[in-house]
Specification:
0% strand; single chain; MetI-like fold; 309 residues; mainly alpha
Length: 309
């Protein structure tokens, strides 16, 4: 196990360096004028440009800037955004908001998607099974850029069940409930179909027939044996989906004006705020890598036959 963890940490470091290098290169080495983007449509004098270029280290070679960024991360220094704020300060205020959205989305996925998938798998061919299959196909076919404003209009504006916007109300869980559910809508549909397929496959396995032939109650066969073996692909999906939810919050947070990671990342991309984009993406990469490591370690808990050499 120890050697496996060391190997995984080394792989995580390589993935992190490669990912941040690509993002850093896309933001800094592919043209564009961040100084003019900071000023907007106003003209920038040569003196102001020289001062800002030196302030943000834009006069240094690309590799030197990237090395300085990596060494700064060791001190938890993500640099300064073009508006003068510390990137770490922006991350500290935005990350908890996006984490709440992702948590609501994951809980919705587990409660609705996984539970409904279990019921559909056990009652294969029933009205509930067929209805969920049709519903998931509809949900999967609607992109989040359409689903989010549609839900905002119906449930926030017309029916008034939820606040139409969460601007300034990021501490209110109720205000984040609708965007969190919408964020997890596609995950619910995918988890439902994945759980159903996994249950169907395991219900036809030899060990299930053996357990039933020994006289074990159906509730124990399904609740212990089938469920435990069916959870491995589901846990894999949820672990990967956690990182995707954190990154995929860009559209949802923009529609509902939620001041989280996605909202700040979208604004940074519009204003070509390279330090903020690189810092936010770095945090998302770390979250994604940690989530995948936790998923890999959970495999041994769910299936004792799995060993890490």
């Amino acid at each position: 196990m120890f050697r496996y963890l060391v190997r995984r940490f080394l792989q995580m470091i390589l993935v992190f360096v490669a990912t941040t290098f690509i993002v850093f290169a896309l933001m800094y080495a592919t043209g564009g004028d961040p100084i003019q983007a900071l000023a907007g449509e106003r003209p920038v004098s040569e003196q102001q440009r020289a001062q800002l270029t030196k302030l943000y280290g834009l006069d240094q070679p690309f590799l030197v800037r990237y090395w300085n960024y990596l060494t700064g991360l060791l001190r938890l220094d993500f640099g300064k955004a073009l508006n003068g704020r510390d990137v770490s300060e922006i991350i500290a205020s935005a990350l908890p908001v996006t984490a709440k959205l992702a948590l609501i989305a994951i809980i919705t996925t587990i409660v609705v998607g996984v539970v409904a998938g279990i019921i559909a798998g056990v009652r294969r061919g029933s009205i509930f099974d067929n209805s969920t299959l049709v519903l998931t196909l509809i949900v999967i076919g609607i992109p989040i850029v359409t689903l989010a404003p549609l839900a905002q209009y119906i449930f926030g504006i017309k029916l008034g069940w939820f606040p139409a916007t969460a601007a300034g109300r990021e501490d209110d869980i109720y205000a984040l409930l609708l965007p969190g559910i919408i964020l997890g809508a596609l995950s619910v549909a995918t988890a439902m179909r994945l759980t159903r397929a996994s249950f169907n496959e395991n219900l036809r396995s030899d060990y299930v027939r053996t357990a039933r032939s020994k006289g074990l109650p159906g509730r124990r066969v399904i609740g212990v044996h089938v469920l435990r073996n069916s959870l491995i692909p589901i846990i894999t999906f949820l672990g990967i989906e956690l990182g995707a939810l954190m990154a995929g919050a860009i559209v949802t947070e923009s529609v509902f004006n939620v001041n989280g990671i996605g909202f700040n990342l979208a604004r940074a991309l519009r204003t070509e705020d390279a330090p903020l984009v690189v810092g936010l993406v770095s945090v998302l990469v770390i979250i994604f890598l940690v989530a995948n490591l936790i998923v890999d370690l959970l495999y041994a808990v769910l299936d004792p036959r799995i060993r890490y050499e």
